[in-house]
Amino acid sequence: MSPETPATNAQRMHAAQCASTGLVGILLASLEALAAAGQVDAACRFAGQACVTLRHDDAHGERQFNALLHRLAPRVPW
Length: 78
Hints:
- The protein has 78 residues and is an all-alpha fold.
- The protein has helices at residues 6-36, 40-54, 59-72.
- Helix 2 packs antiparallel against helix 3 (59-72).
- It is elongated, with a radius of gyration of 16 Å.
């Protein structure tokens, strides 16, 4: 078993970040579609859970879900 080179580690980290960015985009679009289908409360709950999940590992992704949450919150039927 050969030791990993720093370049290999950096490439893997970059690939993981790209995958994360892609998943964030897919999930944001899904939550927007959920809200458009009349499930604003559920979309806000999922966006809030995503914020909590990402806040330590993906600050940019967390901000995107936070922004969605703030856009949708005024539409929640109380």
